[in-house]
Every structure is written in C-alpha cells, then in structure tokens.
Please model this.
Amino acid sequence: MITVTDLGLRFSDKKLFEEVNMKFTNDNCYGVIGANGAGKSTFLKILSGEISPTSGDVSIPSNKRMAVLKQNHYDYEDQLVIDTVIMGHKRLFEIMQEKDAIYSKADFSDADGIKAAELEGEFAELDGWEAEPEAATLLEGLGIPDQLHHQKMSELTGGEHVKVLLAQALFGKPDVLLLDEPTNGLDVHSIAWLEEFLINFENTVIVVSHDRHFLNKVCTHMVDVDFGKIRLFVGNYDFWLESSQLASRLQSNQNAKKEEKIKELEAFIARFSANASKSKQATSRKKMLDKITLDDIQPSSRRYPFVGFQPEREIGNDLLRLENVSKSIDGKQVLGNITFTLSREDKVAFTSLSDVALTTLFKIIMGEMEPDTGTVQWGVTTSRSYLPKDTSDEFENNSQTILDWLRQYASKEENDNTFLRSFLGRMLFSGEDVLKEVSVLSGGEKVRCMLSKMMLSKANVLVMDDPTNHLDLESIQSLNNGMIEFKGSVLFSSHDREFIQTVANRIIEITPNGVVDRAETTYEDFLNNKTAQDQIKALYEKA
Model:
C-alpha cells in the first residue's frame, strides 16, 4: 500500500535517518517506536506528504485515500460535530456541499439536474447514505453522546475535541490511516474501543504511541527509529523488546553453537505464539513469527535510564487518611466527600474521568492546596517525594545547570561533582549534558530530572501525578521496573494501562461525589468488575 524507497532526511548538518526501504501493506498495523527526538512524528509527516524528504521517495497508489489524525484541536470551531467527522473524507464532504448548494437554488436548471445526478452517483459509490450513521457510531464508540453530535465544536471540552478529531481520521474506511499518539486524552473505555476498531480494520495503519498496552494489543509490526536507521520487525512491542534483548544475549554468547541459538529462538517464538490472544492481530502475528530466522532479530542500541528508589526508613502502620475532603474550582465541584485510608503496603493508582480532579487531589495531599472541607493526615513515619504533572515551578526561568539544580537535593556525602555526574549519567545525562540550563530542557528531560531528585530524597512514599507523561518508552519501562521493586508506598495516576496493571495493588476511582475503592485488585480486574463500574457510573450521574 505504501512503498518507501531510499528515504533520507537531514536538518542542516544533522542526519535524522537515511537509506530507509520498507513496504506497509493491508491488514497490518505498524507501531512506530523510538527515543524522544529520534524522528517518529517526522517520519509520519513524510509519509503523509507534510514534509519532503532530503532523498528518496514515498509512493502510494493514486486511487488510495490516506487519513491523518489532526493535532490542531481548534481548526473546526464553527463546524458541527457530525460534519467535522464527515470532513475526514474530503471528497465525500465536498459532494454533500455541492449537492446542498444545487438543490437550494431557486432557479434550478436542466444543467443543475444533470450535475446533481452525477453527484448523486458518486455520492452513492462513496457510501454517502451511510455517512451520518457511520459518523454517529464512531462518536458514540469514543464516548461522545448523541446530544452533542449537532452542536458546534466550539461548545466541546478539550478532551471531546480530541475524540472528534480521532473519529474524523477513522471515518470512511481510509486505505491508509496515520495516527500520532491517538490515545492521548482518551479515557480507558475509549482506548479499549479504539483497540477493537483497529484490530478489525482491514487496511493499513501506522501509529506512533507510548502506550505499551495499546501497541501490544493492536500491532502486527514494529517500526524502530533508532540511531539514524528505520527498521521493520514482525510482532508487537513486547515481542520486539524481548527479541532485541535475546539478540543481545545470543550475540554476546560467542561460545554457543548456532544450533543452540536457533533452539533458544524457537522456544522464545513458541512462548509468544502460545500466549497470544485470540484477536485477529495476534493470529496474524503468529503466522509471521513462525517464519522468523536467527538473522531476523537484532539487538537494539537503545539506552535505558536507571530508576531505583531506596527508602531511608520503613513506614509504620499509618500511611494516610483523608476524611470528607471536598474542593470546588471556579464554582464547579471537582472533589466531593473524598474519604479513604491507606496502609503501608499500598501502591495505589488513582483513576478518574477528570485529570483536574486527580491533580487537585494530589495537590491537597501534598499540602500545595487547601481543601474547602475535610482533613488530610499523614502517618508520622512517612517521608514524601512528589512529582507534579506541571513542573514549571521547578524549571521555568531557572538558569541553573542540571548539575547545580540536582546538587541542592543531595546529601553532604553525595554533594560532589564525581558522584552527581555519575548519578546523572545513569539517567542519560552524560558529558556536557549536565551543564545544560534546566529552563531549556525537554519535557522528558525534566521528568528524568525530577525522578533523579526523588531518588536522592530516599522517601518512603512516592506521590506521582501522571509520571509517564513526556517519557519515551525506554524511560517508561525503567520507571515501571523501579516502581515495581520499590519497597515503600506509591500514590500515582497514569494513562499507561500497563503501568497501572503492573504497579498498583489498589485502585481508587475519584469522582465529584466520592470514591470507589478496590484494595488488593489489579487494574484489569477493576475494569472487568461490573459492580465497581456500576458504582462509578452512579457517582458520576449524581454530578
């Protein structure tokens, strides 16, 4: 469907990638992965024609239609929601407008009749009569209720804008679908709906995402943008990750015979094939995995930061108690009657349909915001370290270097250049990087700095508001492992389903009218618990 030939891109004297050759075919979903700044989104822009490559070309048959997820959420403010979705099929929407203009003419002529008949024929060929029902189905699947379909886009919230533009990209069964971070801003139910949609989508999908659960669920191939090269691998994200690690081990084991290495590869593939779900994507992957040879898997040159938290002291019996905490912002109740008690072994994922509610809760817990009513009481043996969603207070207008910024959080024993440089090196700030001013850091670099600060704090309670935001997959994986191994307590929110599933042993849903609290349960169990989901629905309906 799409053929990439000898593709290369340079910015000034910087080579982003070169000699890229690959084909993207129907009935496959390709996940584009790579470190921050590697060129993932840029690669998608080249495929869509938004950016021209320095060398090589991208070809797509002229009779095939490409749809791209738009990133400007405010391009359609004067349009109706339903029309915005249908605009995803440009030619179909043009025909609808032309038809309406002709039929509304007061002096309807024979020539108008002929033109209208031609348009009606093309309209039918493009399944135009199904346009509104299809658009409505997409919107409802993504959580946009029927009563909003004929309102203007300007009347929607930011999160609703995101969903409408996603529906626009999916509309009309495009031959090629390009999605850059499609799960951003989606709730878990909308993500689950999107996963099923893409699993059953019969054309070509190319997607950039940092959501590992999503990549594992929908992808048949991974496209790895890594150190100037773009390579194509069969399988989902977990298969790519483990196969690259296997390749590194096999490569370093010089004494092993090729037959032994092949046996290890075959056992690895068999395990992945056996554990695959029964989805269409998994079946497709299994067929391709069976054809892999030893030469097909290659070690990755990825670098992973080290994230490890060591509490200085254990927590006593009491961790945290909130009683009847309520908070309104700009006259709207964000939190109401929030009551729960946490114990020393809890690793709690806080979830909500409202990111504002979660951020407000964390600020109240950490003493950065006062509740309107209620109390917050920490156990006397707790020491807390906090990663806020908005880190601007730490870094904005701050001329300190990374080295000097971190120095203020180090103990006397740690406060020397050798230790701090080594510590920052493990967080991928090497050489002269440590002399960069913190005010100019990227979002991912700022989060890695904050994680460094938290590690030095030796706190026994970590409070993290969406810590995976801005991080690349390698940093997310390292943080995930560090949180699993941490011996203290964790209170966190995240949009990363895999992160919640593997870290949390307790889920608390925050609503404007109380909480739904499920201790000693996994995230998957929580989502599949009908009683809990009915309780959540009832609390939101009271809002």
The longest helix spans residues 258-275. The CA atoms of residues 11 and 321 lie 54 Å apart. The longest strand covers residues 318-329.
